[in-house]
Amino acid sequence: MKFTTNIQLGVLIANKRKKLGLTQTQLSEMCGINQKDISLIESGKSRPDIERLLPILSKLKLEMQLVDKETDKPTYTTSW
Q1: CB 39 within 8 A of CB 24
Q2: In sequence order, which residues have a C-beta less than 8 Å from that of residue 61 and are 6 or more positions away?
Q3: Are 71 and 64 in contact (CB under 8 A)?
Q4: Which residues pair with 67 in a beta bridge?
Q5: Where are the domains of the chain?
Q6: What span is annotated as the signal peptide, if there is one (predicted)?
Q7: Which class is domain 6-78?
């Protein structure tokens, strides 16, 4: 899924967290991130920096691709 807005990223994270049966508090403890930050990310009010995003993706078993805007092809994929 491509996302271009904070809201799209937040919805993806919230949906995956809920699918795994985790609360925001549980996810925040697993990632070492404040629960309020998880809430802000999921609501689209904040886009996490890479130091916060990578642990979230890891715990939710998601991967991230960096895509070349000119070719629209992946150039790098993170995976755990």
Answers
A1: yes
A2: 16, 20, 80
A3: no
A4: 74
A5: 6-78
A6: none
A7: mainly alpha
